[in-house]
Specification:
seven-stranded antiparallel beta sheet, alpha+beta, 10 helices, globular, 564 residues, Jelly Rolls, FAD/NAD(P)-binding domain, seven-stranded mixed beta sheet
Amino acid sequence: MKTITHKTDLCVVGGGLSGLCCAIAAARHGIQTVLVHDRAVLGGNASSEIRMWVCGSRGKDNRETGIIEEIVLENFYQNKGLKFPIWDSVLYEKAINEPNLSLLLNSSCLDAVMDGDRIHSIKAWQSNAETFHVVEATYFADCSGDSILAPLSGAEFRYGREAREEFNETIPPVVADKKTMGMSCLFQIRETDHPVEFIKPEWAYTYKTDADLPYKDHHNNALANFWWIEIGGEWDCIHDTDRCRDELLKIAYGVWDHMKNQGDHQVENWELEWIGFLPGKRESRRYVGEYTVTQNDVEAEGKFEDIVAYAGWTMDDHFPAGFYYTEGHPTIYHPAPTPWGLPLRCMISKNIRNLTFAGRNISVTHAALSSSRVMATCAILGQALGTAIAQAVTTNVDVRDINILSLQKTLMDDDCYIPWHERLLSELTKSAKCTDEIVRNAKYRGEENLWQGTVGDCIIYSFETDTDIKEIRLVFDSDLNRNYRNMPCNYPLEEKVIKLPETLIKEYCIEGVRENGEKFVLKVNNNHQRFVKHTVDWFVKEIRFLPISTHGCDTFRLFGFEIS
């Protein structure tokens, strides 16, 4: 067998959205990063293998930005038909395009070598290449969901539901247990223009009447992703994964057989398009970090001094019995504020010095997890962690001791919104004369913070004399309140056309004008992103932003136009 050794600043284990965003952020901020993922495709629960849509914070203007918004918008641009294999390739492209990032797919982490209370290296088996990869790193970020590095390193972790009195919470049971939320195998259906027969596999279950599926919504098929086909919460959500898959497949085929063949559910012309053989997990091991976020923190809005990310999903606590819970709706949506903050401390191991984590395995109680576990939240946690580790490495300071204000500034500079914080403008942006103050108010969401123009309008920065300009920063309007997901759950005959937000400016020109009249021109013909930075080397007296066209909107909409 072949063995390859990698020496790097950061090793990220797990290529779901949290791990991908963590690795990209770290690489973009200048440190060498290796991403180890045990599947052939990236994205975790959002990938083509599982196909859960990306959910996040609720409420007006609360959509997560930064790398996750960049990825979603890139998918709308490249993947016009919203096909899952193309979504996979968009995620893959984001990873391989980073020069500081090495990607190891099909590589399962199976061992760790310790040096006291630090991880020296991990070993992964790349099955399709019959190769062992040994990764030595300064820091390790476990974004695997199941926290694979916990048992390998001796890191403290939790599993199951805490007793109500341990953190003075009201959601948990009175007595602690090992029960969790379960996992799901989703399926997708497609409408045709003719009747389609379905023959149930002999090994699948049969549900003859709607009474056999109590509280299981299976009528509004065009909008359903069948998340309630869920089990495992009363089993072991790590070691019983294959057992869960087998049961989930029997249920899923049985549900579709019921819809097709047991009564009239208006699906005569619908066919089974796809069914997942890899369960999507909600909960398993959770690390114990420098701080454990609780239900009380959620309800108090999480206004931590070291806040680096936020959540805003309800405390959506699925019953451990999942599909077999028959006493009511299979989950309780306990209210939670939106947004509420998450601190850096909940992503740093309490007892392993160089171990960090992001995603659904952060240091939270079961109750808090029920709000923080959704993928857009996990993605911005990953970006925050990758940025923090890059800062730690480049400043030679332990990640526990980094300058939080500097980290928050960097995240906001990268269009990662941090509630209750404002971005600091460059001195050049503040000191220049500007024809419209709203583009430099450092607020990038909400109609009240938008510059809106029509054909012929422009925004101008001017100086007393020619001035060095190195960077131009733009934040466009990608419609943070859009009501459609990153990918579909089912395929009606007349599919809704999902496209780039019409509010985005597509074509624009930036002009720099010197005191002597000499002009520099930067023209963009096909912008499809919310956040854009242009590196320039101009010595000019005036900078002009001239919008030309949009992706459909009849006005030009811009949150930010800044210079440095």
